[in-house]
Amino acid sequence: MLLLHLSDVDEAGWAEQFRQALAPYPVVRRGDDFDPAAVRYIFVWKPKPDAFDGLTGLRAVLSLGAGVDALLRHKALPEAPIVRFVDADLSQRMSDYVVAHVTMHHRLYSRFQADQKARRWSQLYPPAASETTVGIMGMGVLGQDAVRRLQPLGFELRSWSRTPKSIEGVEGFAGDDSFDEFLAGTDILVNLLPLTPETTGILNSSTFGKLRRDRLAGGPVIINAARGGHQREADIVAALADGTLGGASLDVFEVEPLPADSPLWEIENCYITPHIAAISNETSGVRYFSAIIKGHEAGEPLINVVDRNRGY
Ligand code: NDP
Ligand code: OXD
Are residue 242 and residue 121 in the same domain, yes or no? Predict the structure, then answer.
């Protein structure tokens, strides 16, 4: 039996599609009449404290999200393996966001918007893409997809990950010891890291101060599409005010929804979106997880299993 336990998304819609894909395999939702001990898979997003109560026969926890930081903090998370969402559609959507914001900042959007508002004709040529380095933190599924989409646009690319990566056309940096060197050549810093104890608060004043300053007029830029816990918002506000940063694009926040009194709302060169960089698509999600359930029931190993020790 598959149990759906989804908050803030259309659980009924997902359930209907799972029923069609898995029939005659039983699919239930919270509130339905079922025996918790018969549940072999639970599909979750933002599970409530009692989500796993009584699920003594669980074989896997399936995460609607690609990021599992919140799930790993669940107080009653069972021992069963966690399978996270890895999907071409999700990656495409994330890369759409990354490409849009990288190109916007590269072409000095904030500067020319301000000029337009002031009716000011002031010529300033942005550097070529080939003179601009995008540094991507996190070279997993999403980081590698972003690289594939940015490469044809001509940007210089560098990456930072926990373990070394060898990707053609990308200068790879790995581990804490190489972080400063990675930052020193980065004009546009894109965060696609998972949120773990090691990466919490990584977007802070010290990091911003190490980015390359002489390429983009206005200063280096950060783009955070991963998790709000990666950023120190007070540091971003200060860095945008004193010119340490020339701009920021933020899709995620320390507190979501972003409180109405956050100073970030008012900052012209801070581009805010409400955690919409990428969404797990129902059709491809049902296809992905149904194949996993069917395969696992037939004796195949699970894929994309979270390493609890690493935290992602
Ligand atoms: P992956 O697990 O595939 O990749 C994670 C990458 O981060 C890996 O390259 C890993 O290194 C690197 N990494 C992890 N810890 C460290 C560290 N301490 N130092 C340096 N590098 C580190 O994740 P995805 O690409 O699938 O997703 C990334 C994140 O994006 C998710 O965790 C989620 O938080 C976020 N996300 C946000 C969405 C949104 O709508 N805003 C939508 C979907 C995801 P290594 O390769 O060496 O293991
Ligand atoms: C995810 C998200 O982790 O949407 O998939 O944030």
Answer: yes
